[in-house]
Write a structure and sequence with these properties.
The protein has 732 residues and is α/β, with parallel strands linked by helices. It has 5 domains: 2-203, Rossmann fold (3-Layer(aba) Sandwich), CATH 3.40.50; 211-393, P-loop containing nucleotide triphosphate hydrolases (Rossmann fold), CATH 3.40.50.300; 405-509, Arc Repressor Mutant, subunit A (Orthogonal Bundle); 530-610, HRDC domain (DNA polymerase, domain 1); 629-731, Arc Repressor Mutant, subunit A. It contains 34 helices and 17 strands. It has a 7-stranded parallel beta sheet, with helices on both faces. The chain has a 6-stranded parallel beta sheet with strand order 8-13-12-9-11-10, with helices on both faces. It has a two-stranded antiparallel ribbon with strand order 14-17.
Length: 732
């Protein structure tokens, strides 16, 4: 045995250059070398990969590693080839390979060059591959991301549930299942499904002391993200978003604000994802923006921050994604922006799925909400979720511990809660328990006659949110147990029963109240001529209007051609004092800022100084210049003098929608020439009449123009087209 330990240590030094193992690594490697099954639960950054890489290099034959992440396979194969003398030492087999490449891989395996083969689960189940694997010498199977087996896992994949019969058909060899995150329920599922109940369990602590956890209300999230990244310039980070569309938008916004970023999601070509990953690893970009639904598999030790623009659908997903920060044991900041609207969006994803699946999804989301809204130590709550007790009251490395909320004596409330759970026979979820406490005679409460109980209405002096906080803190204290797989039914533990018999001082903290979140998803872009909001500085707004009138008189132009009211309104909210800031004001753009911006900037600057105004633009976030595919298509085709009717047909748009798009382009300062189309629909005399009207008009209102020019003479679309011509020629 001593010789084996010495041999393992020598190989660790020989292949990986390390002098010692981390945690359970050595014991896990010994177990697989002895031909025994192993179940490894090790948090991200704990060194899971080495547990199968080193024994694969030491044992005769080829180790097969099942992994769902094609991007991770490439990354790991590249790393393994760096440890060997030739490329054949490690390969991957997945849908990204050509037929010839697959033949080359199989030849290296047959010639016993390959020690490690990474396989996608779909590739493992193909008949021709199963036949090939039966013919070769396999040292062991390693099933990475094993939580994918469980429907209760955060990343369930049905093809993972077919692995055991395939492995048994190939031949009896040791199995190692590995995962970074697994609740007790998921652990049980994995072992049952892989038929490895007798496997030796190696479970590391889920505590990552170097990670800082914080949840912020989702207000100005994009601005907050840009501010944070700029304050941490040169550091690598990941920003997670809910949808592919949001990923693209956030990445583009980071780029226009001087942050090197690329998007990463399942909708991109595999080759593009691989290039993006390489750029991140090679530090050609600082930030990757990714969907939370897509496992990234980026093995980078110095990711310094992980930001969630939206919260994930489960705490397991959150834990794994945050686990990509600080894998080298150094600084790792994990910041999540929380809005209940995002939770509602995730709930919508479950609609249409089987009822059992909907219930599972609902319970997992409730755990996420509990984590976000709770004001107790974040680390304590996370570890509790994974069945681990954190022995301290404070970790001093999360927002709730650094900025603790006021505590109050909660002995009576906790006792009442536990008594209520016992009174209803421990067969109901949190909502039902709270309805009984609040005295709400809901249909279910009445049907079980719980409205007749002594405890009914005893907690009505508090609200639902208060009692939810007591339940969460009862769970963390170990007084209450919640069986997620039985849809969140609450029961009282042995410690909880002792508390009922002999209550003692128990301090409670009130939950966070993340109200009035932002609505970034509505893409609220002010249209030209939109209504003025009330948040502006009225005195400055009037001064800006006076300046606009003065310039308009000098230029002999209507005031709205210089800047529209919506633009002045935003100037009176944001106080732009540089040309860069002015370009960022709605309806201004680079062209208008250069042409008219200087005097407005000077006025605002002196006003800010005189009134000692603290500007909200402590850091101006540049919005993405709207170069969406549609706008680029419209501008390009107008330049080519393609009929607007043909553009409408090609894009499946109504003419009024196309005109709105062109108005948006022109109001931002882009000059556009649609004379070729106007000449088709309006004769010269009528064009001159409308053009002259706008020269002397007080507003650019289409309704006013129709009233003054005659509603029977012109259509609204003709007026709008002429207004585009006028604004483009006179204003841009």
């Amino acid at each position: 045995m001593v010789v084996k330990e010495k041999m393992i240590a020598e190989n660790l030094q020989k292949y990986f250059g390390f002098n010692k193992f981390k945690g359970d690594q050595e014991a896990i490697i010994k177990n697989i070398l002895e031909g025994k099954d192993s179940f490894v639960i090790m948090p991200t950054g704990g060194g899971k990969s080495l547990c199968y890489q080193l024994p694969a290099l030491m044992l005769p034959g080829t180790a097969i590693v099942v992994s769902p992440l094609i991007a991770l396979m490439k990354n790991q194969v590249d790393a393994m080839r760096g440890f060997g003398s030739e490329d054949g030492i490690a390969h991957f087999l997945n849908s990204s390979l050509s037929k010839q490449e697959i033949l080359d891989v199989k030849r290296d395996i047959t010639n016993k060059k390959t020690k490690l083969l990474y396989v996608a689960p779909e590739s493992l189940t193909k008949e021709e591959n199963v036949a090939f694997f039966k013919e070769i010498d396999i040292s062991f199977f390693a099933i990475d991301e094993a939580h994918c087996i469980s429907e209760w896992g955060h990343d369930f994949r049905p093809e993972y549930r077919r692995l055991r019969p395939i492995i048994e058909a190939i031949g009896k060899v040791p199995i190692m299942a590995l995962t970074a995150t697994a609740t007790p329920k998921v652990q049980q599922d994995i072992q049952k499904n892989l038929n490895m109940l007798k496997a030796k369990l190696f479970k590391s602590s889920f505590n990552r002391p170097n990670l800082y956890y914080e949840v912020r209300p989702k207000v100005d999230a994009i601005k907050e993200i840009i501010k944070y990244v700029k304050q941490n310039q040169g550091k690598s980070g990941i920003v997670y978003c809910l949808s592919r569309k949001r990923v693209e938008e956030v990445s583009e916004t980071l780029n226009v604000n001087g942050i090197k970023s690329l998007p990463y999601h399942a909708g991109l070509e595999a080759s593009l994802r691989a290039k993006t990953q390489d750029k991140f690893l090679m530090e050609e970009i600082d930030v990757i923006v990714a969907t939370i639904a897509f496992g990234m598999g980026i093995d980078k030790p110095d990711v310094r921050f992980v930001i969630h623009h939206e919260i994930p659908k489960s705490l397991e997903g959150y834990y794994q994604e945050t686990g990509r920060a600080g894998r080298d044991g150094k600084e790792g900041k994990c910041i999540a922006f929380y809005s209940y609207k995002d939770i509602e969006k995730l709930e919508k994803f479950h609609k249409g799925k089987p009822i059992a699946e909907q219930e599972i999804g609902k319970q997992l989301l409730l755990e996420t909400v509990a984590y976000c809204e709770s004001s107790v130590c974040r680390r304590k709550q996370l570890l509790n979720y994974f069945g681990e007790v954190y022995p301290h009251d404070s970790c001093d490395n999360c927002d709730n511990c650094i900025r603790p909320k006021t505590k109050f004596e909660g002995q009576d409330e906790m006792a009442l809660l536990l008594e209520t759970i016992v009174a209803i026979k421990e067969k109901f979820n949190a909502d039902h328990v709270i309805n009984v406490l609040l005295g709400k005679a809901e249909a279910q409460v009445k049907s079980y006659k719980h409205n007749k109980l002594e405890v009914f209405g005893e907690g009505s002096d508090k609200d639902k949110k208060f009692w939810m906080a007591v339940i969460r803190q009862g769970l963390i204290a170990g007084f209450i147990k919640k069986e997620i797989e039985t849809y969140g039914l609450l029961s009282v533990s042995h410690d909880g029963r002792d508390f009922i018999k002999k209550p003692y001082s128990f301090m409670l903290t009130k939950d966070h109240d993340y109200e009035a979140p932002e609505s970034e998803d509505d893409d609220d872009i002010m249209s030209a001529g939109g209504a003025v909001t009330s948040a502006s500085d009225n005195a400055l707004f009037q001064m800006l209007k006076d300046l606009r009138k003065k310039i308009a008189n000098q230029k002999k132009l209507p005031p709205f051609v210089i800047f529209q009211d919506t633009s002045l309104e935003e100037m009176a909210i944001q106080y732009p004092i540089t040309m860069e800031e002015m370009k960022n004001i709605v309806g201004v753009g680079a062209g208008k800022a250069q042409r008219y911006g200087k005097e407005f900037i000077e006025l605002i600057d002196s006003y800010v100084e005189e009134h000692e105004i603290e500007r909200p633009m402590d850091m101006v976030v540049k919005s993405v210049v709207n170069k969406s595919g549609q706008k680029v298509y419209i501008i390009t085709n107008i330049d080519r003098k393609i009929s607007l009717n043909d553009i409408c047909k090609a894009k499946g748009m109504a003419m009024s929608s196309l005109i709105t798009e062109i108005e948006s382009i022109v109001s931002s300062g882009t000059k556009i020439d649609i004379n070729y189309f106007i000449n088709e629909v309006l004769d010269k005399d009528r064009q001159v009449e409308v053009f002259d009207y706008f020269k002397h008009a007080d507003t650019d209102s289409v309704e006013d123009a129709l009233r003054d020019l005659g509603e029977n003479e012109y259509s609204p679309e003709e007026i709008r087209l002429m207004r585009i011509k006028f604004m483009s020629e006179m204003g841009n």
